[in-house]
């Protein structure tokens, strides 16, 4: 039986680069770990049975993502130090307000959609901080990050952290708190997460021959660097002179140096001192003898 040809595949010019299967799997493991740990956290903090589960991971444009989320909603801009760019953590307002109601001893449940008050906002930020701690722990196997909330917005259209056509990776999570079920999203800039995934997966993709070639190149580079000629200078302590004094110098003038006679000279490479020495000679050639650094340098 002849195998059917796969035929032409559609190509989206807005997303010329796509996540590989291995990269999606890495993100899936990280977000599933986050969902489990965050579900336990919410159950403990809210004193209500809570559960998070990963629904999907997809690559879309930033404009498409903003069109998918609700309005109004609780949108947190999160820095990912030391990574560049910002992550967006979106939570429906009914979930946020229900969580605050649980924290204050209430029954939770459906809430009218409105902005958080000045009393509720610190409570929500503290909960988000705990949730981001779980996210940091979940991503430790991929990359070490220190996520922090920088801004909270209720209208996603006011957030322009990226250009409309920029690619993003969106993880959709189903959130159950008590009897309430909603969908929450986490949006990562494609240019931020892709280099991390590629670097983490690079070593595992090398074959035995490729690894051997890399080791040989590393040894050759080490040998080449060790045998490369480097200009070394032995110097007195520099002095400062006025331009007029330098112009008027003539044969026979004496220029006093500030270098004490009992202090060794500096041995330098590219203005960096790496040893000390005293001057001398070896036969008919000038030479220097490397000595311990002066006591002032050791202090």
UniProtKB/TrEMBL annotation:
Alphabetical UniProt keywords: Bacterial flagellum, Cell membrane, Cell projection, Chemotaxis, Cilium, Flagellar rotation, Flagellum, Membrane
Any Pfam family hit: FliM
Topology in membrane: Peripheral membrane protein
Stored InterPro entries: CheC-like_sf, Flag_FliM, FliN-like_C, SpoA-like_sf
Residues annotated as domain Flagellar motor switch protein FliN-like C-terminal: 227-290
Chief place of localization: other
Localization in the cell: Bacterial flagellum basal body; Cell membrane
Family: Belongs to the FliM family.
PANTHER family in UniProt: FLAGELLAR MOTOR SWITCH PROTEIN FLIM (PTHR30034), YOP PROTEINS TRANSLOCATION PROTEIN Q (PTHR30034:SF6)
Protein name: Flagellar motor switch protein FliM
Species per Swiss-Prot/TrEMBL record: Pilimelia columellifera subsp. columellifera
């Amino acid at each position: 039986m002849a195998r059917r040809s796969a035929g032409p595949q559609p190509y989206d010019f807005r997303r010329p680069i796509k996540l590989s299967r291995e990269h999606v799997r890495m993100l899936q493991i990280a977000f599933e770990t986050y969902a489990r740990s965050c579900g336990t956290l919410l159950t403990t903090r809210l004193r209500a049975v809570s559960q998070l589960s990963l629904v999907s991971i997809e690559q879309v444009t930033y404009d498409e993502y903003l069109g998918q989320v609700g309005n109004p909603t609780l949108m947190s801009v999160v820095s990912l130090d030391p990574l560049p760019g910002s992550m967006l953590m979106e939570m429906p307002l009914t979930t946020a307000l229900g969580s605050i109601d649980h924290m204050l001893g209430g029954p939770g449940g459906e809430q009218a959609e409105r902005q958080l008050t000045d009393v509720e906002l610190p409570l929500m930020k503290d909960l988000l901080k705990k949730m981001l701690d779980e996210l940091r722990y979940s991503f430790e196997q991929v990359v070490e990050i220190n996520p922090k909330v920088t801004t909270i917005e209720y209208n996603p259209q006011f957030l322009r952290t990226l250009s409309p056509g920029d690619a993003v990776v969106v993880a959709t999570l189903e959130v159950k708190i008590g009897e309430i079920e909603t969908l929450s999203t986490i949006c990562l800039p494609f240019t931020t997460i892709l280099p991390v995934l590629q670097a983490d997966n690079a070593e595992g993709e090398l074959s035995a021959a490729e690894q051997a070639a890399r080791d040989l190149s590393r040894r050759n580079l080490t040998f080449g660097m060790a045998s490369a000629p480097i200009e070394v200078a032995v110097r007195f302590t520099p002095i400062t002179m006025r331009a007029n004094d330098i112009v008027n110098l003539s044969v026979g003038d004496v220029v006093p140096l500030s270098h004490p006679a009992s202090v060794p000279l500096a041995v330098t490479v590219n203005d960096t001192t790496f040893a000390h020495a005293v001057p001398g000679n070896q036969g008919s050639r000038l030479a220097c003898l490397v000595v311990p650094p002066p006591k002032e340098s050791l202090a």
